[in-house]
């Protein structure tokens, strides 16, 4: 379970670091590089163009990015991108501009759609064959969801509906991305507690008391950590400024701080750059060398911190923090919040009722697996029985052939041939076997033998 969740967390982390998200990609125009001495030059306040989109982790990521690239090449569409706000994009107003895209780009979009349709057909056929081959019920509704980002009823041309579906699907999928990570982590925590309780059941009374005592000690040790500053607060940023950047807290300047930690120089804090700011706070709570500290919990804590800052600072909800948004946040009352950040150990992730429901679900899954295992065992036994019958039949056939060959070699009399005619040119094993059985049951068998 831990290994599986570790792989999932690594994958989720990689996707989160890649995703500049659909809500920002529609404004993806090449940004101007910034060549400045970040510790000395006063940054400019003007807004820059958002960065180009990277991999989102969606199953249709390649199709998504290729469509964006070709739309950006059209001068009319590019101009509309610059002058359309996020709400209008979500409502599908931008999609109608597809009718004005140049013919050569529309032709290329048609080709991209046909390639995507072929990819999805092959993918779904493979899934269908696998499920059908395993005797599993095919979930056709789930398979059809693979097509939600395009109009599969028209497989040949890229139309306004295709662009509209692409925007809405990617928006929905990316908005659910963090929620899926939270749900996965919650299941991980419940599984961890379930396995702990199962281990306790198999212990003696003395062992159980000792284990429970150790568990409580580890919980207290983990909770005993320095104060964690509120993510995005002045104290938290000043700590980074001092400890990571080596600068005097008294000289803290928000604009300079932004430029210093905008690692790719595109004028925005993306999710990766934001999460990097929380490392010092997380190190107060989590240490990979400590038994009581779970590194999966640390990544969940990092995600919570990032979401908190985005909710407070990212006013246009494009999952990017611009310089103006950052500066506006430093003027809010919340920026000077001195309260300690409540870590995961102070916020229960699930209730006892939820844990019981989860355990019931695990028990049902285990019963289903056991039933399937019994069925497979029966099938195996039946196959083995059939194999034994085939082996016995093969052995009997072999005996028949050998006996017939011996009779043939002995040169049987005409009378024997007349009374017990054996078809020596039998076309099948069954005819040979039938002849042998007829011969073996005759009075002449012992005489011939």
Q: What would you call the structural class?
A: mainly alpha
Order of the strands making up the biggest sheet: 1-2
Instruction: Report helical residue fraction.
Output: 55-70%
Q: Tell me the span between the first and last alpha carbons.
A: 68 Å
Overall pLDDT metric: 80
Family: Belongs to the nucleobindin family.
Keywords: Calcium, Coiled coil, Cytoplasm, DNA-binding, Golgi apparatus, Guanine-nucleotide releasing factor, Membrane, Metal-binding, Phosphoprotein, Repeat, Secreted, Signal
Pfam families: EF-hand_7, NUCB1_N
Coiled coil: 355-410
SSE layout and pairings?
Layout: H1 2-18, H2 22-25, H3 61-73, H4 75-82, H5 86-90, H6 103-133, H7 140-144, H8 160-175, H9 177-201, H10 205-223, H11 234-244, H12 254-261, E1 268-269, H13 271-276, H14 279-285, H15 295-313, E2 321-322, H16 323-329, H17 352-410, H18 414-419, H19 429-440, H20 444-448
Antiparallel strand pairs: 1-2
